[in-house]
Amino acid sequence: MTWTPDGYVAVVTMFNFQKFRHIQEPGWKLGWTWAKKEVIWSIFGAQTSEQGNCSKYKENGPHSCQKNPRVVDLLPGTPYNQQVANCCKGGLLSSLLQDPSNSASSFQLSVGESGNDNKTVRVPKNFTLEASGPGYTCGPVRIVKPTIFITADGRRMTRAMMTWNVTCTYSQFLAQKTPACCVSLSSFYDKTIVPCPSCACGCQNNSTLSGSCVKNNTAPQVQCTSHMCPVQVHWHLKLNDRGYWRVNVSVTNFNFRMNYTQWNMVVQHPNFDNRTQIFSFNYKLLEPLAHINETAMLWGVKGLNDNLLQAGRLGNVQSDILFQKDSLTFTLDKGWAFPRRIYFNGDSCVMPPPDAYPYLPHTSLVNASSPNISPSTSPRNTISPTTSSPNTSSGQQILVLTLMITLVSSLAFCFA
């Protein structure tokens, strides 16, 4: 932004351009390596985790003398004289679609012993980004055109002295050895609940995996389950009416270690363009691509269920989703009513195998979208397995017995 006698003052802004993944607790930690012997005289809106050896400065030592500083965000409620615009969020960054206003974070630092013109300043290198753990890899620093600033009244433009960019990309495989979530399924027409695949995120007896578990709340680990996943998403096909069908989606937290603040879930299903109402979640239909299933993003309502609490009695959020039927596409056959893929906080969830999906009892009951179906077929006009009542079975037995007696009587008369 400006030059100083032995360096410069810079503003660092981090933008989260990921649509579905946000940076959650404990927040981001940004690091780099100085190209020369730079120091940080002062910093606002953030702080370095270590000061380093500043013994050569007799008075008013720098904020950090580290060759490889690590910067962390300040917490909300920081005194105003230590803040800058768009700072102090505890290191939390929202995903771009969920809350764009909180998808960026800034801090300001004064750098010394670096030179104070474009020819003497050397950009830092080897940037690192830790955000709720590993997973991010940062590319090289690129010097770009100086940033342009426009005053609030729009009548004057100023520009920075220098600007450089660093892009960091995320890999789920680098972030964790095992998946972070799994999906289970159930339906009104089948009493069988399809659970998450066994050992989907690890096994209880395998201590080398990150999914080691405890059987109570005394340690910050994953609750003991057959799947060992921190998060389970359950999709229940709840109702099939004449013109609509309804599902219940629930998310359960089995992680004793953390709350999932501002969680989000991306669901891929071909009928989301006919979504009618979602009762307890926020919803946004994502831009579909040609020949690709419709995809929607769901997240909690602020102050109601946007915070998925730690494992326990309250570690669950859920909502019903009402869909309008399309007579050309709707069917209950071959698992059509269940999602194709589900992502939780940007991570892909483990789905059950296709042959384990709830089985439709009778093929003649597959398509209930026909307008000729009478409401009297069931109390709520739903599809249910065909069963024979005791009275019907008894009547059939009497009819067979009567026919047999008649046949024997006829034969006896003929021989006589």
Q: How would you classify the helix and strand content by structural class?
A: mainly beta
Q: How many strands, which pairing sense, and closed or not: the largest β-sheet?
A: 6 strands, mixed
* Uncertain segments: 216-220, 363-395
Total helices: the number is 2
Report the end-to-end length measured between terminal Cα atoms: 120 Å
> In percent, how much strand structure appears in the residues?
25-35%
Oligomer: single chain
Shape: elongated
Rg calculated over all Cα atoms? 31 Å
Features:
single chain; six-stranded mixed beta sheet; five-stranded antiparallel beta sheet; 2 helices
Account of the 3D structure:
With about 425 residues, the chain is mainly beta. The chain is about 5% helix and about 35% strand. It is built from two helices and 29 strands. The protein has helices spanning about 170-175, 390-415, and strands at about 1-5, 5-15, 30-35, 40-45, 45-50, 70-75, 105-110, 125-130, 135-140, 140-145, 150, 155-160, 165, 170, 180-185, 190-195, 215, 220-225, 230-240, 245-255, 260, 265-270, 275-280, 280-285, 295-300, 305-310, 315-325, 340-345, 345-350. The protein has a six-stranded mixed β-sheet, with no helix packed on it. It has a five-stranded antiparallel β-sheet with strand order 24-25-22-28-29, with no helix packed on it. A four-stranded antiparallel β-sheet has the order 1-2-7-4, with no helix packed on it. A hairpin with a 2-residue loop joins strand 1 (about 1-5) and strand 2 (about 5-15). It is elongated and about 120 Å long. The N and C termini lie far apart (about 120 Å). About 30% of the residues are buried. Residues about 215-220 and about 365-395 have low confidence and may be disordered.
